[in-house]
Amino acid sequence: MRRTFCKFLIRILGWKVVGSKVEDKKCIIVGAPHTSLWDFVICWIGYTSMGPSPNVMIRSEFFKFPLGIIIKPMGALPLNREKGSNSLKQIVRTFQQRETMRLAITPEGTRKKTTKWKGGFHAISRLAKVPVYIGYFDFKRKEMRFDIPFETTSNVEEDLERLKKWYHDKGVVGCHPEQFVTGYE
Q1: Does 109 map to a domain?
Q2: pTM of the full predicted structure?
């Protein structure tokens, strides 16, 4: 029912999902450009139109009533961000505990304009031993995709540069294009 409704919504909104659903039961999907809260909404609808909802890590305080009853069924998983907690260890442990987890992460780490992309997805991938896929949501073409394999190496900085270049070369446009910086402009 949810999948059918999301397929309907995608068509009504004029978006299209290209590619296929990621078949790995456990993986990370790096998604960009993250320039608006609409990114989450449109991507959730798009990904869910292909099958189960993706997972996202959200601060645990958001799981209180009433928001918790909305975000939990959408694939949100709690992340304790209190002082002294280790986000990386929590996420790796969550991967180990779950049978299926397709974790969506934005490398920019914020919706604001930033030149510094974060390599947390890289560390999670290596520690949890899960593959990484590139996802994108292009507001100009109204197109999204989630299934492009991205081979990580032992060099985080080089991998981040390769990822930035991929997004630049693809010409992906965010909801607020002026906030998406790859460094290749």
Answers
A1: yes
A2: 0.91
Q: Is residue 7 part of a domain?
A: yes
- In this structure, how many other beta carbons lie within 10 angstroms of the beta carbon of residue 114? 15
pLDDT digits (tens, 9 = 90+) for 66-114: 999 998 988 899 998 887 678 899 999 999 999 999 999 988 766 667 7
Nearest Cα to 134, choosing from 151, 119, 118, 120? Answer: 151
Tens-digit pLDDT profile for residues 26-79: 999 999 998 888 888 899 999 999 988 789 988 899 899 999 999 898 889 999
CB contact set of 176 (below 8 Å; sequence gap of 6+): 35, 36
Closest to 22 measured CA to CA, from 120, 130, 133, 125: 133
Q: How many structural domains compose the chain?
A: 1
Query: Domain range holding 148?
Result: 2-49+83-172
Residue 106 lies in a domain: yes
Angle subtended by helix axes 120-128 and 87-97, to nearest 10: 40
Supply φ then ψ for residue 111, to 5 degrees: -90, -10
Q: Is residue 57 part of a domain?
A: no
